[in-house]
Amino acid sequence: MRNAQDGYCFSFPAVRGLQAGKPFYIATCPLSTIPKIFVFDEDEVPPELRAQRTLNKSRIPEMVRYLVENPKDYVFSALTVSVASTVSFEENSSLDTPNLGTLKVPMDAQILINDGQHRRAAIEAALKENPDLAQDNIPVLFFVDEGLKRSQQMFADLNKYAVKPSPSLGALYDHRDESSELARYQAQHIAPFKGFTEMEKSSISSKSGKLFTLSSLKQANKALLGKSAKDGFSEEEKSLANQFWEAVYDATPEWQMVLNKELSPSQFRQDYIHAHGVGLHALGSLGCALITAQPTEWQQTIKRLKDVDWRKSNPNWANRSMLHGKLSKASTNIMLTTNALKHALSLPLTPDERALENQHITSSEASNG
């Protein structure tokens, strides 16, 4: 890292503080400097290597209008940024006030926005419409960056109690949550998830080349390992989860066809149940029951998934995975889908599953009668 004292620097009046044992700095910056020195890297690197969410450009015009129409009466909260460089802080010797002075940041340092990328974009656009705003100031909270992982964790922490990002994006950037860590690993290394997992959004468009969302994979793993929201995973459990999904992939011809480019992801999602979250979650629940019942033989039994007809047109999925012709991720539908898979593998139902199954059968008979 380059030291701020070795070359030309940006200088900011600042206050130094301490948080979690690490220094941070609160500075005031002219609006004119914001677009020039604070980088938002949406177009430069993929989401798994970024520290921010994708810019929602539809939010920008309203924010710009707010600034331009209220030049004497607007409020913008502080930006939070990470500096990928060593900084220096010079206390003001003329004042008997510790931690008040000048923050110096190398001009060639990369400064990434952890929170406030939409404000940055709005400021840039507003300055073009009203250059007089250039002399206004905005507070900026500086953290000295400890790498991408720290920046992504800051994003997850900052947004945990604010307007939340999508569950997939939260899973992507949250390095403290072991279920998120497992899902990220599988999305990068395990078939059929490698290259086919939507890392940012929690829904997939009909024309997308992705099969599953990161959040649905995370939920499927929890079902597979029988975990609640805050439970962690042992290394053995993580390895078991990876083995399970690889075994399911080997027993699922359609997944193989997609990876072999014999079936497009969009066509797969259009025609099949197991290209969606409800199918993935049901497979996780099936795996939990199967491995519990057959801890040493489950890999042989799972091969019988090859005989499952996953097509949406299969009447067996009506009012199970499908409601009124559309997929449903409601808990009852996931359980009913799991019931059908357990039946295919000759696994017994739990009392709750049997009660729901009887209710399903009665309802189906009534509607057909």
UniProtKB/TrEMBL annotation:
InterPro entries: DGQHR-contain_dom, DNA_S_mod_DndB
Pfam families: DndB (PF14072)
UniProt-listed NCBIfam families: DGQHR, DNA_S_dndB
Name used for this protein in its record: DNA sulfur modification protein DndB
Organism: Photobacterium proteolyticum
Lineage: Bacteria, Pseudomonadati, Pseudomonadota, Gammaproteobacteria, Vibrionales
